[in-house]
């Protein structure tokens, strides 16, 4: 049984946001240790021993076991704290939820994360404006694909309760708002976001509600 957990997190990290929501939904006790990505805290030797990818989130279990990568952490939480379920038991529906989640986790996030943007600026001449345009392009393309997968009826993406893909979506929409993405074509996704943020588990996980929020 899971007891107290330690989450290494950065307030604006969408991957950390996903995990915070899951921990909150499942009613799990955890403490947060901020990792300032802008200041380079993720490259500190003691942190790299926990997370060799120099990224967040990192979840440390009470016995000291370290888990990295947000989807792997979410999978662990789903198996060890299955209520409420974030994945359907039906294999076909489960595949649909995972496909939507992976559009965000595998298509959008890898080309838009902090280390990629830093490299584009430091080695490829990107300015703040060109970096923002890069972000908007990939976020828009990914959200278009995500929305195309969804049925019309449910409150959330595939059900009337939040599932794993909704955690990924709401976290990514935070980035979309931040970078000025034109969200006019994504009314269905904005409706999901609006409903999700009414829930205490999502609201408490918002970046602006974190202890390290700037």
Task: Give a structural overview.
The chain starts with a strand and ends in a 9-residue tail after the last helix. It folds into 2 domains: 80 residues, Glutaredoxin (3-Layer(aba) Sandwich), CATH 3.40.30; 112 residues, Glutathione S-transferase Yfyf (Class Pi), Chain A, domain 2, CATH 1.20.1050. The protein is α+β, with helices and mostly antiparallel strands. Helix 1 runs parallel beside helix 3 and helix 7 packs across helix 8. The chain has a 4-stranded mixed sheet with strand order 2-1-3-4, covered by helices on one side.
Distance between the termini: 35 Å
| Topology, number of strands | 4
Largest sheet, if any?
Answer: 4 strands, mixed
Structural domains: how many: 2
* Order of SSEs: EHEHEEHHHHHHH
**Structural Rg:** 17 Å
Overall geometric form: globular
Helix tally equals 9
Helix content: 40-55%
Derived structural class: alpha+beta
InterPro entries: Glutathione-S-Trfase_C-like, Glutathione-S-Trfase_C_sf, Glutathione_S-Trfase, Glutathione_S-Trfase_N, GST_Zeta, GST_Zeta_C, GST_Zeta_N, Thioredoxin-like_sf
Family: Belongs to the GST superfamily. Zeta family.
GO cellular component, one term: cytoplasm
EC number: 5.2.1.2
């Amino acid at each position: 049984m899971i007891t107290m957990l330690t989450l290494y997190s950065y307030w604006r990290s969408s991957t950390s946001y996903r995990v915070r929501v899951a921990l909150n939904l499942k009613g799990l006790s955890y403490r947060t240790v901020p990792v300032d990505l802008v200041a380079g805290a993720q490259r500190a030797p003691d942190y790299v021993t926990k997370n060799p990818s120099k990224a967040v989130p990192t979840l440390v279990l009470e016995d000291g076991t370290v888990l990295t990568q947000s989807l792997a952490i979410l999978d662990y939480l789903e198996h060890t704290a299955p209520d409420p379920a974030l994945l359907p038991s039906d294999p076909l529906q489960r595949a649909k939820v995972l496909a939507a989640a992976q559009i965000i986790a595998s298509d959008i996030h890898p080309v838009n994360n902090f280390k990629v943007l830093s490299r584009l600026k430091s080695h490829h001449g990107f300015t703040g404006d060109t970096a923002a345009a890069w972000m908007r392009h990939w976020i828009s393309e990914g959200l278009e694909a995500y929305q195309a997968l969804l049925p019309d009826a449910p409150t959330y993406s595939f059900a009337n309760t939040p599932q794993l893909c909704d955690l990924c979506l709401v976290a990514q929409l935070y980035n979309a708002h931040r970078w000025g993405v034109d969200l006019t074509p994504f009314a269905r996704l904005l409706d999901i976001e609006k409903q999700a943020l009414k829930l205490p588990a999502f609201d408490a996980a918002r970046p602006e509600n974190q202890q390290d929020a700037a």
